[in-house]
Write a structure and sequence with these properties.
The complex is a heterodimer of chains A (490) and B (185). In chain A, 74% of the residues lie in helices and 0% in strands. Chain A is mainly α and 490 residues long. Chain B has 185 residues and is mostly helical. Classes of the chains: A mainly alpha (490), B mainly alpha (185).
Chain lengths: 490, 185
């Protein structure tokens, strides 16, 4: 028998190969090199290289991972390129805001960078996976390093608690997720997303149960009610840089896989899952925003805020069947969320002079006098999180609400607008504390060059998306075309 | 006997043993005894695989779960002496709520399985791969091995899983290694 080596097109997974390869390289380097700065710069360079490679892939058709075979395991299309760019930017942002923080808190370890690169690889794979089995493996690859990173401050109890809670609940939700895959396989005899789409008939009870279990797994990762219980504790206990990485990366990756799996493989079930997602979105918006009102710890408040933002994003997913631009609006919202959240966490990190200190709302009193520029940046981020024009948060919400209205989800749009108004109270309270009170301290906080760079990028991104959203939305919309069966079918 | 076939009786026996020891795992107060009960539960699952004709899976279950994981757990318990002798209270205040949820979940899945499983006959992922010799079809171990390294099948998840395990390894070393500087501080 003639043996012909399979033709494998590695270009498709090139950004993944860069981040994974860098992670492996750092492990080897760990034997020889003990200087932490080297790891930082190498990681930054690797992620930047992956980003350049990824952006260069925009708009190209590279075919499939292998030359033969009907259903490829991974695909690289504009959808995955767009999401991978967001994820890689979140990696760069995390590195920039962590530079000084990790030094100051004595948490800088080579392992942090390795785990981050591995987790980032898993996140990117979530948006590229075209088979439920790969979605599951990617989910684990993104989660396991995050569990450990949450416990990075091993000597602190709250960090340990955070890691343990995240791990136990995460493992449990992964179990439910796999059960969902098994049921879908039972209903269709396939795990490849297009194959599931081809076989699945509407109303199959097995697939219905499977869809419900998959939804539980995703809802846990993105922190949607009623699977949000872990979020505040984990966000509060984890070192703030890890919280920032988690709140953007894990959420965006969760939505990436949710969008691809549900719109590519399960349009036949769309009546069921859209109703369920709309309900989850409404609950998430109400509970996330209302409970955030009572928080005095800023990390906890941002935890509940991230739950609320998962709710706004879910509106777009729930509207995906009725309105062709809904998925595009979700992508735009995620881009705005990336800049705004990274920026907000950057300011939180600047104020956290010691691990676990300086993170209460009280500590923001009089910040405007100590650091006028830092306060101004925080003002923009808080306005953007609320959704006030002209910020990225407003643009994102505008397109999301529009698709909700177009999809006849009036009630959801009304809930979303009302909860946005409520959210103004707790976001603007931070601004109020910064500008209206005098604090005990008068000396400015030291931010560091890397953090300032990160904040500047976040600020420019937030305002750019706020002033000129149309071009970005067009880009996001282009990213969706050709990916989702829902849109292809009308 | 009661109109049951031999393999049905056998299955009921094995299932009873597996379930019984699984209950023991979560109810026994001594962690070491619970670990031993876990081994028997794993063995029951392995026997179930044999009755289903999945020989390779049964072997993997024996080697990995009983041979490696259970031994690892027992080593872990023995090395942490305090746990070895401690008697833990296995229940907390939420037992009733957990039981309620479990019963609902069980009823739901049982209903779905009895009525609708399987919806379509399963297709082997290798059916897509044309180069498989038909004579091999009977040999599930060979098929499984090929599926893992076949780019048309599961080579990518297989490789990614190895990176994932590596990340887990790095993480466990990171958590477990002694911290001299922090102990001084």
């Amino acid at each position: 028998m003639d043996f012909q080596p399979p033709i494998i097109n590695l270009l498709i997974v090139a950004p993944l190969l860069i981040t994974m390869g860098a992670g492996l390289f750092l492990m080897l380097l760990n034997i020889f090199c003990k200087r932490d700065g080297v790891y930082y710069w190498l990681t930054l360079a690797a992620i930047a290289a992956a980003l350049v490679q990824n952006v260069a892939m925009w708009g190209h058709e590279y075919g499939t991972f292998i030359a033969r075979g009907s259903y490829p395991m991974v695909v690289s299309d504009n959808f995955s390129v767009f999401l991978n760019s967001i994820l890689l930017l979140s990696g760069i942002g995390t590195l920039l805001i962590s530079r000084n923080y990790l030094h100051r808190t004595k948490l800088e370890r080579p392992e942090f960078y390795m785990l981050m690169l591995f987790s980032l690889s898993g996140m990117m794979m979530m948006g590229m996976a075209n088979d439920l089995i790969l979605v599951f493996v990617a989910l684990e690859l993104l989660s396991i390093p995050l569990y450990i990173m949450a416990g990075l401050a091993v000597s602190r109890d709250d960090s340990k608690e955070s890691a343990m809670k995240y791990f136990l609940l995460g493992a449990f939700s992964s179990g439910i997720f796999v059960y969902g895959i098994a049921l879908i396989y039972g209903a269709t005899g396939a795990t490849a997303l297009p194959a599931v789409y081809a076989v699945l008939e509407a109303g199959s009870p097995l697939a219905m149960a499977g869809t419900a279990f998959l939804m539980v797994g995703f809802a846990f990762k993105i922190g949607a009610v009623p699977f949000h219980m872990w979020t505040p504790d984990v966000y509060e206990g984890a070192p703030t840089v890890v919280t920032a990485f988690m709140s953007v990366g894990a959420k965006v990756a969760g939505f990436a896989a949710l969008l691809r799996v549900f719109t590519v493989a399960l349009p036949a079930m769309s009546d069921a899952w859209m109703g369920a997602l709309a309900l989850i979105a409404a609950l998430t918006l109400i509970i996330g925003n209302v409970v955030a009102l009572m928080q005095t710890n800023i990390k906890r408040m941002l935890g509940y805020s991230s739950i609320a933002h998962a709710g706004y994003l879910l509106i777009g997913v729930a509207a995906a069947g009725q309105h062709s631009e809904a998925v595009g609006s979700v992508l735009l919202y995620m881009l705005a969320y990336l800049f705004t959240t990274m920026g907000a966490f950057g300011v939180v990190i600047a104020l956290e002079h010691k691990l676990g200190e300086g993170i209460m709302l009280e500590d923001y009193k009089g910040l405007a006098k100590r650091n006028p520029w830092l306060s101004a940046a925080m003002l923009v981020f808080m306005l953007s999180l609320t959704g006030v024009p002209p910020t990225g948060g407003f643009s994102g919400k505008f397109y999301i609400f529009r698709s909700a209205v177009e999809a006849n989800l009036w009630w959801l749009a009304i809930i979303a607008i009302m909860t946005s108004v409520v959210s103004g109270y707790y976001y603007l309270r931070v601004v109020f504390y910064m500008y209206m009170f005098d604090g005990d301290r008068t000396e400015p906080v030291y931010a560091g060059t890397a953090l300032k760079t990160g904040l500047l990028i976040a600020l420019v991104g937030t305002l750019w998306l706020g002033f000129f959203p149309a071009g970005w939305f067009e880009l996001a919309y282009k990213a969706v075309i050709g990916t989702t069966q829902l849109l292809a079918g009308g | 006997m009661f109109g049951l076939e031999f393999d049905q009786i056998f299955f009921v026996l094995i299932a009873a043993v597996t379930l019984g020891f699984s209950v023991l795992v979560v109810t026994m107060r001594n962690l070491f005894h619970a670990a031993l009960a876990l081994m028997v539960a794993f063995l029951g699952v392995a026997v179930t695989y044999v009755t289903l004709g999945a020989g390779f899976l049964a072997m993997a279950q024996l080697l990995v779960y009983i041979g490696a994981i259970s031994i690892l757990i027992i080593f872990g318990i023995m090395m942490t002496r305090r746990i070895m002798s401690a008697e833990e209270e296995p229940f907390n205040g939420q037992a009733g709520l957990a039981a309620f949820t479990a019963v609902i979940f069980f009823a739901f899945t049982t209903y779905v399985f009895i009525n609708y499983w399987p919806a379509v006959p399963a297709v082997s992922p290798l059916a897509m791969a044309p180069e498989v010799d038909p004579a091999m079809i009977d040999n599930s171990v060979v098929l499984l091995g090929q599926a893992f390294v076949n780019p048309n099948a599961y080579v990518l998840p297989f490789e990614v899983a190895s990176v994932m395990l590596l990340a887990a390894l790095v993480g466990s070393v990171f958590i477990a290694k002694p911290r001299i500087q922090e102990a001084e501080a």
